[in-house]
Amino acid sequence: MRPFGYTRADTSESAARQAASGGTFIAGGTNLLDLMKLEVMAPEALIDINRLDLGAIEETDDGGLRIGALVSNSDLANDARIRKDWPVLSRALLAGASGQLRNKATTGGNLLQRTRCLYFYDRAMPCNKREPGAGCSAKDGFNRILAVLGTSEHCIAAHPSDMAVAMRALGAEVETLKENGSTRRLTLDNLYLLPGDRPDQETVLEPGELITAVVLPAPVDGKQTYRKVRDRASYAFALVSVAGIAKLENGRIARANLAFGGLAPKPWRNAEVEALLTGEAPSEDLFNKAADLLLAEAQGYGANDFKIPLARRTLVSVLNELTQEAQQ
Amino acid sequence: MTEQFKMDAPATARRLDDMAQGLVGAPLDRPEGPLKVTGTATYANEWQVRGMVHGVMVRAPDNSGRVVLANCDAVEKMPGVLAVIQDDRLLRNPAQGTANKAPIQGPQHAAYLGQLIAVVVAEGFEQARHAAQSLQVQLENGEVMPVDPATAAVEPQEAKTLDQGDLDGAMKDAAFSVDVTYTTPSHSSSPMEPHASIASWQGDDLTLRGSYQMLKYNRNELSDALGIHPDRLRILSPYVGGGFGSKLGIAPEAVAAAIAAKKVGRPVSVALQRPQVYEATMRRSETTQRVRLAADAEGRLTGLGHDARVSNLPGETFAEPVLQASYFLYAGENRKMSMELARVHRLCAGSVRAPGEAVGVTVFEGAMDELAVQIGMDPVELRRRNIPEKDPESGKEFSSRRFLEALDSGAETFGWANRPGVKERREGEWLIGYGMASAARVNVLMESQARVTLTPEGRARVETDMTDIGTGTYAILGQIAGDMLGLPRDAVDVVLGDTTLPPASGSGGSWGAASSGTSVYLACEAIRKQLAERLEVDENDLTLKDGMATFDNQARSLSDILNGDQIAKLGHVLPGDTSEAVRQATFGAYFAEVAVHAASGETRVRRMHGTFAAGRILNAKTARSQCLGGMTFGIGIALTEEMAFDPRDGHVANHNLAEYHIPVNADVPQLTVDLLEERDDWANPLQAKGIGELGICGAAAAITNAIYNATGVRVRDYPATLDKVIAGM
Ligand SMILES: Cc1cc2nc3c(=O)[nH]c(=O)nc-3n(C[C@H](O)[C@H](O)[C@H](O)COP(=O)(O)OP(=O)(O)OC[C@H]3O[C@@H](n4cnc5c(N)ncnc54)[C@H](O)[C@@H]3O)c2cc1C
Ligand code: SF4
After folding, report:
1. Are B418 and B387 in contact (CB under 8 A)?
2. pLDDT at position A325, please?
3. Quick one: which atom of ligand 2 is closest to the CA of A125?
4. Ligand 2 in contact with A157 (CB < 6 A)?
5. Which residues of chain B have pLDDT under 70?
6. How near does any CA of chain B get to the CA of A3, in Å?
7. Which of B284, B244, B371, B358 is nearest to B700 (CA)?
8. A287 has pLDDT over 70
9. Pocket of ligand 2 contains residue A243 by CB under 6 Å
C-alpha cells in the first residue's frame, strides 16, 4: 500500500469538498482496501465518511424509503419495512458476499464497488479499465464471470453488485451532493456508464460527488423474487441474477419489472422486454420471446458463452415462478 | 535406550486391545483445540521476534526469459527498504514431499508466471509490500513456452506401465464395454494459513519458524538450498494452519527469509500473499484419463485399462500418480495401464490432498457407473462382483480389506435401495439423484522416531519432530502413550514440531499417525519393560492404569516405582518386508444424494455418507473429522474447484479465495461417516492404517454419478459446473 493521506469528514459538505481535490471516499472499505493493497487503486488521500449522518432509513412522503448511504448491507436486508414491502431487495442483499462483509459494506459503497474481473486485479496484466489504451486481457482470457451485454471491444467487465440489481428493478434513485453544495437525483440507469472506449469511467459522478442516499419509490404491487445463479451455494458472485416483480391481472401480466445481474457492466434492465410481457398471458413461448429480446445483442467471449443460454433458462424459470404463484 | 523395530512380519500381538486405560479409539478432543479457536496457538508468522523486519516476494510477470530488475536502485532507496535480493539460491519452486534436497534453484530465469524471483526487505510490512510492487521486473529474450498439456511434449512414464493379458481382445469380446475419457483440472491445496517463515540467525546458526509438514526432510532441503550443514539449522513448526500437501517440501519463502535475514543482519519474516500461494506453491496436475472396461454378461470385468496424461514443469519428476489404486481395486485378467507426463510452463505440480487417488479413483468410479448403467445393474452390485481375491497384478494377498462390508453397510445406512431411476425423481424445479462410488487409497509405513520420558512424578512427555497440521497428532500420540503407560490423557504432554527432537515421518501420504504413533508405542513398550524389570515381573503381567501399576495382586503408583528417577526411551520404527509381502490399502464407499436445478443446472449435495475401513481407529473423532474433510474436498472436486489457467501464458487467473472456489458451509450438507472395526497386523504394531486422505479418494464420483442419476447428463470434464450440466440438459 502506498502512503496516503487520511481525513475523517465531519459533514457531507466538507467531505465532498475534500474529495473534489484529490480525495477518495472510504465507507466500509471492503472493496477499496483490497484494491489499495494491490495498488490497483492508489488514492492520494482517503476521506472517511463513516462518521457522517447518513445511516438512517426514513419513510418518504410518497410511501417510499430513503436509505442513507452508510446503511450497512446487513441492516438494510433486515429492516422490517424492506423485508415486507421490498423483499426483492432484502433477498438480493442476503445473496451477496458473506455475513461479515455485509456487516461492513454500505449502501453507497455497494453501488460503486468495482468489477471482479480477474485481470483488473492483477497489475501484471494489461487492462483498459486500470489504464486506458493498455488493452483488455480478459477478452481472450479467462472471462467466465464477465459480461455478455453492454460490453465494448475495450472492456467486458461485469458489475458485481446484487443489491443494485434489485434496486434497478425497483426503480430506485440515487441522491448525491456535489462539491459546490448542490444536490441531484439520478436513476441507476443514468448513474452508470457503459464502457465504450473509456472503461475507466464507470459513473457520471463528478470528482467529490458524494452519494448521500438511495430513494426507493413506493412499494410495487406484485410478486417479487431475486434469483442468483452462481458457482457455489454462497460467497460467490452472480453468474446470472434476476430481480423480478410481476403482477398478474385476469390471467394477464399487468406489469413486469426485470433487472439482471452478472450479464452487463451495470445492473441491466430492458424496457422493451417488459413491454413485450405486459398485457400478455404467461406462457413458455412468451417467456422465450422475452429472452430472445433480452439476449438479441448478447455476445460471449469464450469462457462466458454459457451465460447466454443460462440467462434464458433463468429468466424463463423466474417468470414461471412469478406468474404461477401470482395466479393462485 | 533405543527401541528399534523393523516391520518385517505381521504384528499379531495387538497389545493396544489389552491396555487398561482405554484411550486409544476414544473420540477425545484435540488438546490444542482450545488454543487454536481462541487465537492463542502461535502460528509461524505470528511470532514477534525482536528486531524482526519484513520481506515480500516478487513474481515473474511471464513464463520465460532472463530476469532483469530494471529499477532496483530506485527501489532500494524507497522508504524503509533494507535490501532487494535476487540471490542464486532462491528456489524456482518448492521441494517435492520427502525430496530431502533442494529443488531447482536460481531466480535469473523465469520458468512460469508467478515464480518468485526476488525478495524485498523493509522495516515495515507495508513498506516492503509497496517496494515489492514497485519493482519493475523485465524478462529478456523470453520465448513462447508451452502452457497447455494437451499440446505440449510428453514423456512416457515407463515405471507406471502395465500390460497384462490382452485388453484389446477383451474389449472386443466383451458383452458390455466402456471406453471413456475424463478430464480433471488442477487443484490448489488452498490452506487457510499462507506459507510463512521467520528466519533468525545466531552467528552461523539459523532458526526458522515455519509452517511445514515434514521437518526432518525440510531441514535437509533448506540446508541444502542454503549450503549450510543441517546441524546449524533448527526448524520450528508446532502449529500448521493446513498444508494439504503444499507444505510437504521447503518452499520459496523459507529460503528467501533465511537469505534475507543473513543479508540484513536481522530476523526476517516472509509470508506469501494469497495470490502467491496459488501461483508459486504446488498444484495438483490436471489429468486426462482414458478408462476402458470390459465385462461379461454377468458384469464381471474381463479387462480394464487406465491411461493418463498429467503434467509438470521441466525438470520436475513428480507425476500425479492417478493409476495408484487402479492396479488393485478391481479384478479382471486383461489389464493395461500407462501414463505420460507433459512438460508445461505452469507452476510446479506436486502432492495435493491424496495425490493420485483423489482424481484417479474418481474418474475410474465414474467409468464404473457408466458400465453399471449400460448393464442395467445396481452399481453397488457391480463393484461387489469385481472385488479381486488377491492383488490382480502381483497375486499378493491383501493385508486387510473390509471393502465388501463397506459397500454393503454404506448402502444400508444411506438407504441406497430407495434410489430413483435416471431422471425419475423431481421436487419442484429440483431433479433428485443418488450416486455412489468406492474409496481406495494405498497404505504406507515410514521411518519415524519419538522419545517418551516417564518423569519422576509419573507424567509422560512425548517428543518428536512430527507435525500436527490440524489433523489430531497431538491427540493421538497422547492417547497411545497414555494407554501404554496407564496414564490419563492429561498426564501426557506431547511436544511436536521442532527439529531438535527425534526425527519423525512427518505428516503426509496419510502415514503420519501410524508411523509416528508406532514410534511412540515402541518407546512406551521399552518403558514398560524397564518398569517390569524394576518390579521383577513379566512385562505382560503388568497392568498400568491411572498412574498405578498392578501386578501379582499388588498395586503401586508409578512415582513410587520410579523413586525419583525418570525413564526415557527412544522408539524407532522402520518399514520392512510387510510393505512388499502383501498389498496394503484402505477401502470404503460413498453415497450421495444431489438436487440439480432444472433451469440453472446448479447442483446441491443434499446428503452424503461414507463408510470406511482403515485398520484400528486411533481416535474416533479425529478420524471422522478427516473423513468429513475428505468428503468436503470431494464436493469441491465434483462441483467447484478448478485452477483457471490463462490459455496464453499459463498463469493462475483465479488466484484468491473469492474466485478459487473451495466449498463453503452452504455447499456442505450433513455428512455422515461410519468407521468399520478393523485390525491390520501387516501394517504396524498399532494395526492402524492411514485415514487422512481416504475420504477424498473417489468421493467426487459419488456426486457426479448422482448428477447423472438426477439428470441423465454425464459430465466427464470436472468440475461439474452448471454450464456443463445445462449443456447436456
Ligand atoms: C470476497 C468478496 C465477496 C463479495 N461478494 C459479493 C456478492 O456476492 N455480491 C455483491 O453484491 N457484492 C459482493 N461483494 C462486494 C461487497 O458488496 C462490496 O465490497 C461492498 O458492498 C462495498 O461497500 P463498502 O462500503 O465496503 O465500499 P468501499 O470499499 O468503502 O468503497 C467502494 C467504492 O465506493 C466509493 N464510495 C463509497 N461510499 C461512497 C459514497 N457514499 N459516495 C461516493 N462514493 C462512495 C469508494 O470511494 C470506493 O471507490 C463481495 C466482496 C468481497 C470482498
Ligand atoms: S474486461 Fe475490462 S476490467 Fe477486465 S481486463 Fe478487460 S478492460 Fe480490464
Report:
1. no
2. 55
3. 5
4. yes
5. 1
6. 9
7. B358
8. yes
9. no
Task: Report pLDDT for B1.
Answer: 67
Residues of B annotated catalytic, as ranges: 693
Is B126 within 8 Å of chain A by CB? Answer: yes
At A324, is the pLDDT very low, low, confident or very high (cuts 50, 70, 90)? confident
Residue type, position B509, single letter? G
- Is B666 part of the contact surface with chain A (CB cutoff 8 Å)? yes
Residue B353 lies in a domain: no
Count structural domains, chain B.
Answer: 3
B661 and B630 in a single domain? The answer is yes
Residue with cell 452508470: A192
pLDDT at B97: 98
CATH of the domain at B494: 3.30.365.10
Helices B357-375 and B699-711, interaxial angle, to 10°? 30
Would you state the cell numbers that stand for residue B23, as one nine-digit string?
484411550
Say yes or no for a CB contact (<8 Å) between A145 and B130: no
Q: Radius of gyration over alpha carbons of chain B, in Å?
A: 26
How far, in whole angstroms, is CA B585 from its chain's centroid? Answer: 15
Domain assignment of residue B485, given as a range: 2-30+446-575
Q: CA dihedral defined by A215, A218, A223, A225, rounded to 10 degrees? A: 10
B521 part of a folded domain = yes
For residue B549, the cross-strand partners are B544, B556
CA dist B447 and B464 (Å) reads: 12
| Coil vs helix vs strand at B559 | helix
Protein residue with its CA nearest to atom 35 in ligand 1: A109
Instruction: Please report, for residues A92, A103, B698, the alpha-carbon distance to residue A67 in angstroms, rounded to integers and kept in the order given.
Output: 16, 16, 50
Cβ partners under 8 Å of residue B699, min gap 6: B362, B437, B439, B590, B608, B610, B630, B631, B633, B634, B635, B637, B638
Does the beta carbon of A106 lie inside 6 Å of ligand 1? yes
pLDDT at A326: 42
Residue B594 covered by a domain: yes
Does A2 contact chain B (CB < 8 Å)?
yes
Does the pLDDT of residue A328 top 50, yes or no?
A: no
- CA-based nearest distance A198→chain B, Å: 24
Residue B289, all three cell numbers:
484419463
Is residue A265 very low, low, confident or very high in pLDDT (cuts 50, 70, 90)?
very high
From residue B396, give the alpha-carbon distance in Å to each of B279, B440, B680, B694: 42, 17, 15, 22
Give the side-chain half-sphere CA count within 13 A for B311: 27
**Residue B201: inside a domain, yes or no?**
no
User: Amino acid letter at B69?
Assistant: L
Tell me if B640 sits within 8 A of B617, measured CB to CB: no
Say how many Å lie between the first and final Cα of chain B, rounded: 68
Q: What is the grid cell recorded at A7?
A: 481525513
Q: Give me the pLDDT at residue B31, please.
A: 97
Indicate yes or no: pTM above 0.90.
yes
Residue B713 to residue B693: CA distance in whole angstroms = 28
* pLDDT over 70 at A327, yes or no: no
Residue A266: closest CA among A197, A201, A312: A201
> Does residue B632 sit in the same domain as residue B614?
yes
Predicted confidence band of residue A273 (pLDDT cuts 50, 70, 90): very high
By the 8 A CB rule, do B422 and B712 touch? Answer: yes
Instruction: List the single residue in A1, A232, A237 with the smallest CB-CB distance to B129.
Output: A1
User: Which member of B653, B667, B723 has the closest CB to residue A233?
Assistant: B667
Instruction: Give CA–CA dist B406/A248, Å, rounded.
Output: 54
pLDDT band for A239, please (50, 70, 90 cuts).
Answer: very high
Residue A283 has which C-alpha cell?
406462457
Top mutation candidate among A115, A128, A131, A301 for ligand 2, by most atoms within 8 Å of CB: A128
CA angle, B278 then B283 then B286, to 5°: 125
Whether ligand 1 lies within 6 angstroms of the CB of A237 is answered as yes
Residues B26 and B115 in one domain: no
B461's enclosing H/E stretch is strand B460-463
* Closest by Cβ to B61, choosing from A1, A116, A124: A124
